[in-house]
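Posting for a labmate who doesn't have an account.
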Amino acid sequence: MKKILEQELRYGINSKIYFILVMFLCGLFGVILFLNYSSVTELYQEYEGLINYYEKNNLNIEEELNNEYIVETSENGGTIINPIVYYNDALSKYIYAASSEYRLSQLLESSILYFPIVFGLLGLVISTNDYKYRTIKLRTVRINKNRLGLAKQISIAISSFIIIVVSLLFAYIVGEIMYQYLAGKIPIKDFPIETDTFGDRSSIFLKFFFAYIIALFFAEIGYTFGILFKNMYVGIIIIFVYTFIIPNLGVYDLKNTIFYFANQIFDFYGVISADVSENTGFISSFFIILLTFILSFVVNNIVFKKRSSFES
């Protein structure tokens, strides 16, 4: 088993798939960092405009800042009462999301958007590489199919962990560079971070664990699609369409259950959010995810074991 596992991991290194996925995930993390950076700069421009308006009209800025803002919605849109407080609070929130204290959490929050694609692709590559290069006959003659299938899925777990850690490290460093650049453009000290206001729902370890579970879950789904279709393209199209095009279908939707747990674990102070359908609970969400994972695992193992190694 150890030798088979080493072969699978070596393939990921030699084929540069790990490097490609790390770069891909870093690029996606970079999108989140840039969106948060852009949100801060745009909000600050709006805030400066309000400050100038107050000063020109001799309005009491401090008095307004000590009050609360109210958002009134109607069929024709919405109105913000006391907008200067709204922009002040929004700036504080987005600056906090970009800071070193919260940056890692925001990157992990993006797992609900990006990990289905990135790690679904990983599972697809690992499950289809022997079919692509026509080595499935040779390998299954020498290796028991059960052991080979298990080794492939263990390699998914190991490589997923490494890809996440390396990508987070690079993205965190880039985020710090962007934050320092932001600090040179905007007086960040004027928007202090209040730890009482910006509390954490869970520890960073739980957030990382949940993101890792999402990675494993969609890697397993990708692996199953690869075993079923013996090519990457059908599987990645299905995952992409489900993740980004099909809307949240409600209580029993797999995506909805992931969003439910995400809202219990993540804080979403930055540019990411997750909408959950009503009447969604812990037990139903847990069993939907568990049953999907078990079904995926059982199906890919049965198909892989029963399929002839001489099929092209």
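Reply:
Got it, the structure tokens are right above this. The two ends are 25 Å apart (CA to CA).
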